[in-house]
Design goal:
Elements: E1 2-6, H1 12-22, E2 29-35, H2 41-49, E3 52-55, H3 66-79, E4 84-87, H4 96-101, E5 106-110, H5 124-133, E6 138-145, E7 155-162, H6 169-192
Parallel strand pairs: 1-2, 1-4, 2-3, 4-5
Antiparallel strand pairs: 5-6, 6-7
Bound molecules: 5-O-phosphono-beta-D-ribofuranosylamine (GRF).
Amino acid sequence: MNICVFASGAGSNFRALLEARNAGKFESEIVLLITNNSGCGAVNIAAEFGIKTEHISRKIYEDLCDEEYADVFLNVLRENKIDFIVLAGYMKKVPDEVVDKYERRIINIHPALLPKFGGEGMYGMNVHRAVIEAGEKESGITIHYVNKEYDRGDIILQERLIVRDGETVESLQMRVLELEHKYLAEVIRKIEVGKVEI
Ligand code: GRF
């Protein structure tokens, strides 16, 4: 498969995927990064690994209607022969037309055990803060297919961890990221070998 990663932030999952690919943990090629934020860490990582970046943001295309804006994504994806999309810390909603076109071929990684702590506004540190404030005994990661509702697609994999006494938002984020880095590549491998339905 030719994979495109969508990312908006630090890009640690993007890096972990590139390293896993270079270590032969899966066979697909990561050929493209799409970001809405040209100053984000993921863009630097793409440059470091020689991966092409496309910056697609509403701010650049403010005159386009939603359908035309979706076409910008679809054209870039087609031009780069992308058959699979990984959302790795992508903060924007993927246009519905892209979700339709790539049905069962887009996955997202979420830093909690969905369906808890998901939905709009539940991203990054907000998620870990909410988990700690709710006094949860466990948290973890969810890797799921993307549909048109935030964080509601079918779940492919969840991995749990115990929330420790004295756990902080930062320590929880770090421990959850470790799980993310390990399992995102594993899921891609499973999809490649048909152990997960696409
Ligand atoms: C991760 O926690 C991921 O689950 C969430 O956003 C964060 C991205 O981190 N969707 P990074 O940019 O990969 O470091």
